[in-house]
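Co-fold these.
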Amino acid sequence: MTVRKGTIQLRHPRLDADAVGPFRFGHLANERVVLTHDTGEWHVLDQPDFERLLAGELDAEHPQHAALLDKGFLRDGMDAETIAARFRRKKRWLGMGPHLHVVITTLRCNQSCKYCHASRTDMDRVDTDMSLETAKHVVDTALQSPSPYIAFEFQGGEPTVNMDVIKFVVEYGREKNRYEKKTLDFSLVTNMTYMTEENAEWLLANDVLLCTSLDGPKHVHDWNRPWTGKSGAAYDSVMKWIEYFNRRYVEMGRDPELWHVDALMTTTRKTLDHWREVIDLYVSLGIRNVHLRPLNPFGFIMKTWRVVGYDMDEFLAFYEEALDHIIELNQQGVQLIEGTAAVFLKKILTPDDPNFVDIRSPIGAGTGQVAYNYDGTVFPSDEGRMVDAMGNGLWALGKVDQLSADDIIRHPTVKTMAVASLLDSLPQCSTCWNAPYCGVRPLHNFMMGGDLFGQRPNTPKCKQHMTIARLLFERLDADTDGSVERIFRRWTMERPRETPPQDAGTN
Ligand code: SF4
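Predicted complex below.
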């Protein structure tokens, strides 16, 4: 008899519930079945062995028995204390408090990108600059977070247009931290087209990490990111400053493996046609991380979607080709990481979780990250700020001078976001094989369907996360000589330089 259970055809649907541990399962290519556990452990079996496992017929002599028992997929002899300890370690960020603090120094920007998520304003709108007084409240509130690690990320608009606030947050933050004794990081997400030598030297001298937007070769970058009110190409400016900073790091005796400009890429329709050129450009510039991300439904993109947008199937076809190209380059000795894959692989291949605020359960909105708008309005995430700029004020938590970190974490909106993103309570996510590695963004659901919870398995984000995880498991399963796993493990290694900037948005 054959019955259907989930995506698997069970030819012998006998289940000995006393023999198996608590696990989820999903279907890979070639009739292979991936078993996953809430601790992040996983194991791939062929269909006959999977059915033997379910029926309680996989005995101690079976070559997979010891591994399945150790990972918690078999009940008889399971070490529940070890499993519980692994689960605690996987979720240890729960209760740590917000570590990522996004500071919108200004909305002013000298570019007018076709997909701008940040709802930029023109350069004469000085009323959208953050004041030093507001910046002081931001630092005071951020340092109240119970997290021992605090990352300030400067975003905009173009954040360097309000360099005074960047300098103030860095200097006042370090001064105040003499008493708080946390680990502090400062990162700047900049379009590199408003940079001056004076500002560059200050950023270098003050160890502010740099991340720029680079969408690919000149014809792609300049098409995506036109420069307003000025002749010349934004691409040339980005190239000039990447070269400048990377040269200066070397002159300062910094290890270029650890100190270099990181880059963010936003995938538009134009990128889909030129993905190989984009990756080859990143390699030629010595950039070690390319993050292949689909467009988000926030900001100006809603008006330009017909020109720059695509559907998730098109994105995922591009992603698979690009991922395999990046793996091949790594096999030839190139060091290039794909960012989304790296987040999933840290969950799949290591006992820890990278605490990436957008892909965790519950989401880190207000509990892992906080965004401070130029006027002091606090949001649980930079996305909340973007949606607010589109006219929906539901996600404004209050003003920074009136909220403590505790008020933010306990805010009803933050609690709502946590409930709406808890995979264990979401229909279909709760039984999905990918849940140990996945995460839901309620604001994304809201923008796509007008509902925080959404019909999750029908959403493009679900398809994206499911497909990326499946691709990674299939590449690991087909890896007969271990070369792919070695590359993937390298992608999971933490860098000794403090945590690199998280891409809470684009600039
Ligand atoms: S969002 Fe989709 S892939 Fe992620 S856990 Fe839910 S059902 Fe699974």
